[in-house]
Design brief:
Blueprint: E1 26-30, H1 46-59, E2 63-66, E3 70-71, E4 83-87, H2 94-106, E5 110-115, H3 125-133, E6 145-146, E7 169-173, E8 179-184, H4 199-214, E9 219-222, H5 257-268, E10 276-279, H6 286-291, E11 300-301, H7 304-307, H8 313-326, E12 332-334, H9 343-348, H10 361-364, H11 373-389, E13 393-397, H12 418-422, H13 469-473, H14 479-494, E14 501-502, E15 510-515, E16 518-523, E17 529-530, E18 539-543, E19 552-553, E20 557-562, H15 564-568
Parallel strand pairs: 1-2, 1-13, 2-5, 5-9, 9-10, 10-11, 12-13
Antiparallel strand pairs: 3-4, 6-8, 7-8, 14-15, 15-16, 16-20, 17-19, 18-20
Helix pairs in contact: 1-2, 4-5, 11-14
This protein binds alpha-D-glucopyranose.
Alpha-D-glucopyranose is lined by residues 76, 79, 116, 187, 223-224, 280, 338-339.
Length: 569
């Protein structure tokens, strides 16, 4: 085969026991609230997930990542945790949780939970106690309470913005009724940040990890893993406030954060096989990201860089190279999650030519504007096939396998994301990618809710039935069938496959690489493109568009090939 550029992978990459289980895993992300509702109250739950696990296993996945299901007032839908050691009653009981883990394991699916340790909920016992105990108390020392500036402390302690818009500080009323101190919240005011310099915090999370590991959980996705510590002086952001202020270095990615992951990795190693950690990390450069993946820290971090690229061959290739280098050959890829717009919509929109700031990537994947869904769908199919052919693990967000578009036209009154409220409606937020899934073409909630249930927590549009899982399962041309075919072919041909080797092609808009006997080609252009004559004797495994001639890659499509002779040798 032709040889061009090979990505160098350090030989010690993921040599630790246990991690090999995850390095090329396909992980299905379950946004529980919207997956399946077993009791008909309009909210997806653990009973619904248990019934729906078979669909995930049948798709060919290796694991699930469960968004937070702990006790929570749900101001940020579970990312505001009131009790880390219990299940939210809206989702079920601890017995329901255990049943999900057991059923998942029986089906060969491993289970990741979500660890939210940067902040908790204002309803957490520690925070309530802190507010009640007043200034200078040991209870307040577990959070970041500070006096305000100005004559009477009426101004916030510094100029930091919250990620969700508005100030990162909220003022409390002291026990005597007077206006009091301010507490820091990197996100919504309902999510007070812990002070990780207080020893109780680290001790608490060590206990939380062991609690869930002892129940059989196989690992954690770590929420805002570059958070947790803030620069000790909480100095003003020199960039000022607002969208133009740029990355606030004092708020994120502090050197001490790495101690957390060293200690968590140690805890994970108390188990056999070792428990796994994947981080959600937004930092200004690949080097900073790589620091989190040192051999005694996290196993993995999401390569969000690929997710935010426009539909352009050179940009995809560069993001892939960066991801492979930072991820030591086995990155965690994803093209969608519960924080960004659906892929078919993003790829169907006008493609941004500007470079997204690495720290502002979420905004880059939440653009509004008209979408050509047919084009978006073609590109999403091709991009998914490309990503699934890469070395590394792949995280699939629920509903992507159905090709769901973003729902933009929710009634204002139905919107629930704090981003919508905190930005006074300037930003739509994330509700549109969290609409409860359609399982059937008909019915009040398209099969999301138990028989007889009349509503879902976010309204499903009338056209959702056209994306129902049941119809797609029977249609070989559907998005669901494509996912099934890709995962089956990946299992058969890519398990333990070689590193990626880029291949030369006749046109820049055709990206091609081989991994041993396997070859993947993606045509980013709107024209059919011929492959090099050397490929003519290859066998086609999957094509994301109907293939008339295997020597011609259709517009906006990916084709997987195998060299049968090489595979047999
Ligand atoms: C992460 C989560 C997001 C959540 C935020 C605050 O970015 O993915 O959904 O709102 O953290 O916990």
């Amino acid at each position: 085969m032709l040889v061009s550029h090979t990505i160098e992978i350090p030989t010690d990459a993921h040599s630790a026991p246990g991690s090999a289980l995850w390095r090329d895993a396909v992980v299905y992300q379950v946004y529980l609230r919207s997956y399946r509702d077993s009791d008909g109250d309009g909210i997806g739950d653990l009973g619904g997930l248990r019934e729906g696990l078979e669909a995930i296993a049948a798709l060919g996945c290796d694991a699930i990542w469960l968004n937070p299901c702990y006790a929570s007032p749900q101001r940020d839908h579970g990312y505001d945790i009131a009790d880390y050691l219990s299940i939210d009653p809206a989702y079920g009981t601890m017995a329901d949780f255990d049943a999900v883990v057991k059923r998942a394991h029986d089906l060969g699916l491993r289970v990741l939970m979500d660890m939210v340790a940067n902040h908790c909920s204002v309803d957490h016992a520690w925070f309530r106690a802190a507010v009640a105990a007043g200034r200078g108390s040991t209870e307040r020392a577990r959070f970041l309470f500070r006096e305000g500036r100005g004559v009477d402390g009426e101004l916030p302690p510094n100029n930091w913005d919250s990620v969700f818009g508005g100030l990162a500080w909220t003022r409390v009323v002291e026990p005597d009724g007077s206006p009091g101190q301010w507490y820091l919240h990197s996100f919504d005011s309902s999510q007070p940040d812990f002070d990780w310099r207080h020893p109780d915090v680290a001790e608490h999370f060590a206990r939380v990890l062991r609690f869930w590991f002892d129940r059989g959980v196989d690992g954690f996705r770590i929420d805002v893993a570059h958070g947790h510590y803030k620069a000790a002086d909480l100095a003003d952001h020199p960039g000022g406030r607002g969208p133009e202020a740029g990355h606030n270095h004092a708020m994120w990615d502090q050197p001490e954060v790495h101690d957390i992951y060293r200690s968590w990795r140690e805890i994970g190693r108390e188990y056999e096989p070792e428990k796994y950690f994947v981080g959600e990390i937004w930092v200004p450069s690949p080097d900073r990201l790589a620091d989190y993946l040192r051999p005694d820290e996290l196993h993995n971090a999401f390569s969000f860089d690929l997710l935010v690229q426009p539909w352009e061959a050179a940009r995809f290739r560069r993001a892939i190279d960066t991801g492979l280098t930072v991820g030591r050959g086995w990155p965690a890829w994803t093209l969608a999650n519960h924080d960004v717009h659906r892929a078919v919509t993003r790829y169907g929109q006008e493609q941004p030519s500007d470079e997204a700031l690495p720290t502002d990537m979420i905004a880059a994947a939440r653009r509004t504007g008209p979408a050509n869904l047919e084009r978006g769908r073609r590109r999403a199919r091709a991009a998914t096939a490309l990503a699934l052919a890469l070395p590394g693990s792949m995280y699939l967000y629920q509903g992507e396998e159905l090709g769901l578009p973003e729902v933009f036209d929710l009634p204002d009154a139905a919107r629930q994301d704090p981003i919508w409220t905190r930005s006074n409606g300037a930003e739509l937020g994330r509700d549109g990618c969290r609409i409860p899934l359609p399982w059937t073409t008909d019915g009040d909630t398209f099969g999301f809710g138990a028989t007889g249930s009349r509503h879902a927590w976010l309204p499903q549009p009338a056209w959702f039935g056209a994306y129902a899982r049941e119809t797609q399962a029977a249609d070989p041309g559907s998005m669901l069938s494509l996912y099934r075919d890709l995962l089956a072919a990946r299992r058969a041909h890519l398990g333990g496959a070689a590193a990626l080797r880029w291949l030369p092609t006749a046109r820049d808009s055709l990206l091609a690489f081989e991994r041993g006997a396997f070859l993947c080609a993606t045509n980013f252009s709107g024209e059919p493109l011929a492959v090099l004559p050397q490929w003519h004797n290859l066998t086609v495994l999957v094509s994301t568009q109907p293939l008339v001639d295997p020597a011609v890659i259709p517009p906006e499509s990916t084709v997987w090939f195998v060299d049968e002779r090489l595979a047999a040798s």
